[in-house]
Amino acid sequence: AGNKPIVISTWNEGIAANKAAWEILGKGGRALDAVEAGVRVTEDSINCCVGLGANPDRDGHVTLDASIMDEHGNCGSVAFLERIKHPISVARRVMEKTPHVMLVGEGAQRFAVAEGFPLEADKLSADAEASYKEWLKKSEYKPVVNIENTGHGPFAPARLSNGDLNHDTIGMVALDAAGNFGGSCTTSGMGFKMRGRLGDSPIIGAGLFVDNEVGAATSSGLGEEVIKVCGTHLVVELMRQGYSPEKACKLAVERIVKRNKGNVKDIQVGFLAINKAGEYGAFAIQKGFTYAVCTGENKNEMVASKYFI
Ligand code: SD4
After folding, report:
1. Which residues are catalytic?
2. Cβ of residue 199 lying under 6 Å from some atom of ligand 1
3. Per residue in 90-127, pLDDT tens?
4. I want to staple 182 with a disulfide (CB 3.0 to 4.6 A). Which of 35, 97, 193, 247 is the partner?
């Protein structure tokens, strides 16, 4: 059944992020404001995969990617952004204050500073420092399935000080009381990536897509695979053809599986989506992808995505 307003977001950190988004949505606020406020919570927390506390690239620097989209089809993104705490808000400024869609690297940082965002120290969090030292021992460049919630392997994120493995790259989509969509996506990308590597998260139509006539979708996982099929644009276009959010996510996953000739046991990609009726759904390649669904102040819970294998 449909819900409105509704906000959904990837992985465990989605719960706290949804809560912040709901403070806006629950009062009749705009989806765009909600999805920005929501993922800022994740950017503020120390975790493996979002914000300045996250894992660095293989040269030891944290480089951040983010994108945002509103109900008018406006979008903004930043990529390869260093030393700025809230890339999602910089992405929004790119959308609202420049004639451009994307700013990257040094130019994105310069724009952020000119807009009043503080330039933070180039310093790893204690957790990231420990993970980086561990990674340097072998320096393997190999994607690990569901790294966000397993905590194992060469990309293993360090545990939080409270012992939780509660970390995430976050994508969030929302439908507000007025029936408008907004979406956001923010990440440090893949831990120990090559310097300069961008994933799907800052690419409109890959990590995030919103079309106010149809719905909104976001993704998590191995960004290269999502980019190759224009993943979230595909999900939204499938919903336009009449498929439910879950079915649209499933068909997009199957496209990736097919492109890889079925050899996907080492790849994780998950999509989630909402349609205009407020129905939501998700689908992933592998078991283990989870997302948070919030439809009320006390209705905010984790859901396990269906999966291909
Ligand atoms: C990327 N899609 O940079 C991101 C990483 C991610 O959960 O979503 N991890 O490829």
Report:
1. 169
2. yes
3. 999 999 999 999 999 999 999 999 999 999 999 999 98
4. 35
Q: For residue 276, which amino acid is it? A: K
Going by CA atoms, what residue is nearest to atom 8 of ligand 1? 220
pTM value is 0.92
First vs last Cα of the chain: how many Å apart?
Answer: 27
Whether the CB-CB separation of 50 and 4 falls below 8 Å is answered with: no
* pLDDT 10s digits, 163-201: 333 345 899 999 999 999 999 999 999 888 889 999 999
CA of 186 to the centre of ligand 1 (A): 9
Q: Classify the complex by whether its ipTM is higher than 0.90, answering yes or no.
A: yes
Mutation pick for ligand 1 pocket among 55, 187, 219, 305 (CB with most ligand atoms within 8 Å): 187
Quick check: 67 and 201 in contact, CB under 8 A?
A: yes
Joined tokens for residue 189 = 């990308």
Distance (Å, whole) CA 179 – CA 190? 34
Question: Ligand 1: which of 166, 220, 232, 268 to mutate, most ligand atoms within 8 Å of CB?
Answer: 220
Q: Are 185 and 171 in contact (CB under 8 A)?
A: yes
The CA 268 to ligand 1 mean position distance, Å, reads: 10
pLDDT per position as a tens digit, 39-82: 999 999 888 888 998 889 999 999 999 999 999 999 999 999 99
